[in-house]
Amino acid sequence: MYKNIDELNNALKKVEMGEEGLRGDVIDNLIYTAVFSEERQLKEEAMSSIRDIAKALKIIPASIHNLYMAIGRGEVGGFTVPAINIRGMTYDIARRVFRIALDKNIGAFIFEIARSEMVYTHQRPSEYAAAILIAAIKEGYRGPLFIQGDHFQFDQKRYAEDPEAELKAIKDLTKEAIDSGFYNIDIDASTLVDYSRPTLIEQQRENYENTARLTAFIREIEPNGITISVGGEIGHIGGKNSTVEEFDAFMQGYLKTLSRMGKDLPGISKISVQTGTAHGGIPLPDGRLANVRLDFEVLKNISRIARERYGLSGAVQHGASTLPDELFDRFPKVGTSEIHLATGFQNIIYDNLPKDLRDEMYEYLKEEFKDSWKGVTEEQFIYKMRKRAFGPFKKRLWTLPQEIKKKILDALEKRFEFLFERLNVFNTRPYVEEYI
Questions:
Q1: What whole-number distance in Å separates Cα of residue 190 and Cα of residue 318?
Q2: Distance CA 7, CA 10 (A)
Q3: pTM above 0.90, yes or no
Q4: What is the DSSP string of 273-331?
Q5: CB count, 10 Å around CB of 162?
Q6: What is the DSSP letter of 154?
Q7: Contact 158, 192 (CB under 8 A)
Q8: pLDDT digits (tens, 9 = 90+) for 134-168
Q9: Phi, psi angle pair for 16, to nearest 5°
Q10: Please, which residues have CB within 8 angstroms of residue 7's CB and are 6 or more apart in sequence?
Q11: Are strands 143-153 and 184-188 parallel, antiparallel or unpaired?
């Protein structure tokens, strides 16, 4: 890690922007400075240098919108784009993803982080984007790459107390993300759906109106020449399964609302639905995960209507990383456009940590969140809460001994390759080059 800006600049001058030199220790020190320096100006200088280097090497944050519109028109398809949430060891894990992408000629894949994850993993958008970009530099990946704001979600309680304040908070986060190179934003106002109302259009009203307002805001601030990919959501993950009728009600209200905000404003490119899953899976009292009854007909029917009626890429599956292996090749077959993967990777990290560190993290959770431990076993509590240890133990995870880190990363790389193969994204690089 660099101690000051002069030391950082001298290191960059020594390699004279040569690619091989940059892929050595300079890069490692640059990202550690961006993430862990306590001097704000030095952190910002490190992140700025990373963005400049990436741009010079033609590593370009991009929107997947045009590819999704091509899927909506039926010009390309047969694959499901994986969207990967990285909660810790972001630089090292992203490097392994890029290795597979290079080896298997993959272009259709997304790195993402949710609004809530930014808080408990201690990763703001600028830092997360910097870690992704520098991982691409290190591994020699070139071209467009997709960074996404996942679940930019309305808090139901805060919205009820002050709707405009909650909308402003999400607008502020959206601008921060876009300024950092997040050119893919998933709006999640599904928490505002009110099933007590008598009609579907009324149930979805707060959802589609706020999704439209945020879409218009994104169109106002997106960079020239870029149409940011925007996603909507009709069913809160973990709630009741979505229906085609709910999707139609949402889209009709959304499109009418958006049209009042500006003529010919591009709308969403995909729709997230509930199919029976829950984020992270459902832990049983002994810590094992319950079997999930995933309704592929929801994905199939809404994806078909999304393409045929509205020109969207299709439905998005959340909460998928802990599903049984034999299900993953079905997602492309039913036309799922995107799938979000997070907790399964977190589980691999925990499974391969040294026992003493894992125990220390668990003890931290039991003490720090003891007021939340109600009505569940210790195993259930730990499983649900352990994502919250990533922020406080962030540096410990980034600086694990190499032999331990390699064990974790090898296991993750094996999992990534399996999922990418099942989702049929091998050799999708030509599609990205054609449409992005």
A1: 13
A2: 5
A3: yes
A4: E-SS--TT--B-TTSPBPP----HHHHHHHHHHHHHHH----EEE-S-TTS-GGGTTHH
A5: 11
A6: P
A7: no
A8: 999 999 999 999 999 999 999 999 999 999 999 99
A9: 50, 40
A10: none
A11: parallel
Distance CA 415, CA 422 (A): 11
For residue 161 the two structure tokens come to 């107390």
| CATH of the structural domain 58-350+392-435, one choice from 3.40.30.10, 3.40.50.720, 3.20.20.70, 3.60.10.10 | 3.20.20.70
Q: How many residues does the chain have?
A: 436
Q: Is 330 exposed, middle or buried (0-12, 13-18, 19+ CB in 10 A)?
A: middle
Residues in Cβ contact with 419 at an 8 Å cutoff, skipping those fewer than 6 apart: 82, 328, 341
| Structural tokens at position 410 | 């090898």
3-state class of 198 per DSSP?
coil
* b/e sequence 376-410, b meaning 16+ C-beta within 10 Å: eeeebbbbbbbbbbbbebbeebbebeeeebebbbe
Of 213, 66, 60, nearest in space to 137 by CA: 60
Residue 365's Cβ-count burial label (10 Å; 0-12, 13-18, 19+) is buried
Pairing of the two strands 315-317 and 229-233: unpaired
Spell out the domain ranges in the chain: 1-57, 58-350+392-435
Average pLDDT, the chain: 92
pLDDT single digits (tens) 357-380: 999 999 999 999 999 898 889 998
d(CA 415, CA 394): 22
Q: Are 375 and 123 in contact (CB under 8 A)?
A: no
* 38/395 Cα distance (integer angstroms): 13
CA–CA separation, 66 and 227 (whole Å): 8
pLDDT at 81: 98
- Mapping DSSP onto H, E and C, the string for 395-409 reads HHHHCCCHHHHHHHH
Q: Beta partners for 231?
A: 186, 270
| CA atoms lying within 13 Å on the CB side of residue 55 | 7
244/301 Cα distance (integer angstroms)? 7
CA dihedral 324, 326, 332, 337 (to 10 degrees): 10
Spatial separation of the C-alpha atoms in residues 120 and 46, rounded to whole Å: 23
